[in-house]
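ARCHIVE CARD
SHELF: 3
SLOT: left
DATA:
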Amino acid sequence: MFKKYFDDYEIGERWHSKGRTVTEADIVNFAGFSGDWYSLHTDVEYAKTTPFKQRIAHGMLVLSAASGLQIFEPGIVVAFYGMDQVRFTNPTFIGDTIHVEMTVEEMQDKGNGTGVLTAKQEVKKQTGETVITGTIKVLLNKR
């Protein structure tokens, strides 16, 4: 999404990423890296006793993977500016394929050759269900 200069975007513009399948290895590696070994993610027998009936991916794993599906073009992107109203709305299971859909909602000219682009971000899986929603802000260079 973030491969054009600030001035080249328009409110309402939409973008759709490629897909990525979440694997068991992703969950194990994320647990090891983050230290989050919560049983819902890593214990098959415990997960069977939950409303999900199986292990689910960490919300932060899915959010991180979604970040990797976005395009952050060097020289155009100055910095990641933040996220607001992030919600984990549905589970992501091992084997689900996620993608990112974004819509430009706001553009704020910073007056110094840059601007902050705010986009609604939805991470969806192959069923069409939204698993994460929120807004993302990125500081972009102007032409």
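SLOT: right
DATA:
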Amino acid sequence: MSSAQQKIDDLLDRLNQDRSPRSPHMSGHTPFGGLPPARPSLPIGLNSNSNSPTMQRPRHLAFAHKANDNTEVERRLKEIMKNSGDLLIDDKVYYTDIKEMEHIEELGNGTCGHVVKMKHKPSGKVIAVKQMRRSGNSDEAKRIIMDIEVVLKSDCKYIVKCLGCFITESEVWICMELMDTCFDKLLKRLKQAVPEEVLGKVSVATVEALAYLKDYHNVIHRDVKPSNILLDSKGNVKLCDFGISGRLVDSMAKSRSAGCAAYMAPERIEPDPQNPDYDVRADVWSLGITLVELATGVFPYQDCKTDFEVLTKVIGTDPPSLPKDKDFSTEFRNFVACCLTKDKKQRPKYTKLKNHIFIKKYQETEVNVGDWYVRALESVGDRAAIRKASSPE
């Protein structure tokens, strides 16, 4: 077995520890980011028999590190708990008892919990609530804290707005603005590609959101994909789900925590042994894969039956591109090609991306994304979704 195959096998072993589906289109993606499966913590390419110095840390040192880690997690969680129940809704703070939240319907399920639509009875506002159980697992606690901290501290119109949270001894609820759907579910519903002008606005929103995370919070998202890009009937496009986001050290991500294998950049699948760290350009690759999927209506590696085949193709073949027989602009083709540059050193970061002619064009061009969304639903006769998109809260 080649070293590349071994690395892919090791990665898949960790990806599948807590994940049942193997295909990106059979994974039951949920709107509002759903809830990510529990993520692996071992470095890609290493297994329990690795000779890595990290894996050979003496037990008493590893235990001390773990204890310190858990103490820090608990400290941060207790700090957040001080504001548990304080919800900012329509510029007014409500000191809310969890019993004042009325369940309306389920929106989606994930490995770690579920997302529900709820009514905040004191204000009458309908919101989305990501509900997670506190299991005592420190890795899960870290993901919860990362998700809460990123959305609570973010002030960017392209990132889903967090209204506050509830933290009890057994559960964590993250309260968010309610969006209509995610692009993954919408693509399945429409069974047709998304127009280039709409993807122009999607690209602007996603690049701006990712750049904001990097510039203001020193964070890399690590799980950019259609299910984590949300849409509403007003035409707002927003990024969500920050549970596996990572802190950057000297602009590099040290952790090997995985996102969805299908959208993973080559340097995360097969790290350079001399320079295994990766940076925001890994998310740029994921955006490129996402745009190809939305622009064509099909996942670019659709012929692959397993994650292993997908990852092998990512490493061993040329990057996907927009079909030559489709009527895409030169600017869009070039933007996607930039995102899907295989050599990470040649792939642009956000400053360069934001100056790309395609992004510049759609920063200025008016596109009624909300109107397109409603008309797209009408085209497939989705009356329930049309009523939902057209009705006030």
